[in-house]
Amino acid sequence: MPFIISICDDEVGQLKYLSDLLIKWSKNRNIMISIKKYMSAEAFLFSYPDEPCSLLLLDIEMGELNGMELAKKLREKGDMLPLLFITGYSEYMNEGYEVDALHYLMKPVNEEKLFSVLDRYIMRNPADKSILLDCADGIVRVSLDDILYCEADKKNCLINLKKGEQLVCLSGISSLREKLGDDFILCHRSYVVNIRYVKSITKTDAILDGEKTIPISRRLYESVNKRFIEFFTKG
User: What is the pTM of this model?
Assistant: First the structure.
């Protein structure tokens, strides 16, 4: 599913400029997005939430209902839709904090600053179990649920995905493991495996769904076996 990013701004030129930046960012990061454009706060409210939105880039200075008033209406309903304010006036910054805005960018929007905010959003979004990896082909967004196991390859790592694809990640296995979360366990000095795809454990191997076999070192067998039992008996 793509990330649905909405832009709400009453200037046609600004809508195009921000849309072009989002497209460039998504291509650079290999992230699938869908962009929706609105010329007024009223138009956005009319469509939302029937048309879902993952992130709203929101101009503040608009017609009868400005961007800050739109944000307050959303928050009054308990809606915590992530908001990125874009404006030409710095005096709105304190109000932006009051509605728990993701960030506040001044016009003209700097490409590097926007990309940095979007990167942080992708990394921290609790609804999205994905990470950004520095791979041989560039920055790639990968869903954690798509990763079967990772294998050390000299200074790099090979990321093996469910569909049989393999990515070359430009980092060591230790640093990569720290990004992957609790479902990924070190079973050998050269292997990290996604516990949810482990079908059975022997003294020497982890057998994955599809019968792929991953080695387990003697030193790590007890911790791997314990984690396997805990994962599939929890709850």
Answer: 0.57
